[in-house]
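Data deposition worksheet. Section B asks for the primary sequence of the deposited chain exactly as it was used as input, without tags or linkers unless they were present during the calculation. Section C holds the resulting structure in token form. Section D is free text for depositor observations; keep each observation to a single sentence. Incomplete worksheets are returned to the depositor.
Section A, Depositor: J.P.
Section B:
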Amino acid sequence: MRRMRPMFDQEKFQRWSKMARKFHGQDFWSSIFNNSQAKEMMNSFSELLGEEKSFPRVDVYQTSHEFYVLMELPGVRKEDVLLQVVGDRLEIKGTVHNPYHGYQVHFKERFTGTFQRTVQLPDYVDHNQYSAKFVNGLLEIRLPRAGETPAKTLNID
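Section C:
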């Protein structure tokens, strides 16, 4: 019996997807789709192709006067993270170092390397009144709502 050819070349798609994320950030699929079902479908598709999910994982909460952003960054030092507010976006860049550099890897699930992620906020923020700190592996960022403001780099306490 003849073997069926796949509908598409998985390796080529992975290369294309990696290049797209390089230019558009880790949340590439989220920038294309607004619908949560479409996002979930694309996350499932990405998992099938062996692609990593967006890193770091982020939750955004809001009140009438501020936003709370929680980021999973266990083992990451504040010196290895750069936060910047640009309009109504929070940009996160950083590095997760391998704690066992030089060791042979037997099994690995945790992400190491450089990362970049942009979080779209529902409104502009006052970057002069923010707070950012690490608590139990979570980076907690408090950003008060504000009118339109210029870009600013944030320090982590």
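Section D:
The chain has two domains: 9-54, 55-157.
Residues 81 and 94 are 4 Å apart (CA to CA).
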